[in-house]
């Protein structure tokens, strides 16, 4: 019944979160799975490049993560972005915790929670993200959904709540190639596009995961495309 | 009550029902030993279209990681500890699994059949 208690709290929290507000940020990012693997450490690199009528926005994240128990993993990030003058530099720092609420396959679907705290470099802007991670297997396919609530505050920003929604429907074709459809929504943004991921195993727990997605914005702009790519080395 | 509130409560009731159903349903258990980096039994026969729980008892002095792409499961089994792994409902067929730390020896197969037959050496 422990899983049931954890899940009930998470569900009602998420229903509250989703009913509060909508996002005006840029929601295309990783779609998180609700799983944690014990003893796992990882190095991660993510790249997001968005091209619209205003130009190109490039962001990169470098991270180190470590699972601290069978159900909890902690990851620290440094975020770099290209600024208005075209220079690429440090933009933010972030710490993230992912909590696996149920064992995989234990319930009708698998559940987890995500918590992130981000501080902008040289600006008094903070961002706290929390939300529910969901995954459900349908034979050889998996549906993953993230429902996130973001709160921003600080002297250099107007305090506000935002929500983000991310969805991935993946066909587990081969370990090295798993095509998917990804959907992202927030205020003034709806995006959809194809994605691909794969895993290459080395010995023991060592493996390299890659993800690639091309998301087209459907929010009325003449041009709004996002390419996202991620590499994760787990060891 | 307005429509969004009704929808919220409707969704909550639906999810609550699904959770209760998942928790209250009895799940058959199949026990596997891991000793000297070998799974025993290495062939587990389970019924089709039914969720089951594999309980793996690691009797070795080192941890092992249960891994199966076809079963879509990954789980670390600590030394001298038991781990539970829920699998299914599955279609009839054979689903291989292995231990990531000792992939040459720690290997096994879950055999899914229509009629419910238990492996003779499964507990």
TrEMBL record, chain A:
Going by the UniProt record, its keywords in alphabetical order are: Signal
The signal sequence is 1-23
Tell whether Signal is among the UniProt keywords. Answer: yes
Q: What is the name of the protein in this document?
A: Copper resistance protein B
**What organism does the UniProt record list as the source?**
Paraglaciecola arctica BSs20135
TrEMBL record, chain B:
- Report domain EfeO-type cupredoxin-like positions: 15-112
Q: Where is the signal peptide?
A: 1-25
**Database matches in Pfam families:** Cupredoxin_1
Is Cell membrane set as a keyword in this record? Answer: no
Looking up InterPro entries in the UniProt record yields: Cupredoxin, EfeO_Cupredoxin
Q: Which UniProt keywords apply?
A: Signal
Source species, domain of life:
Bacteria
Protein name, UniProt field: EfeO-type cupredoxin-like domain-containing protein
Q: Which organism is it from?
A: Paraglaciecola arctica BSs20135
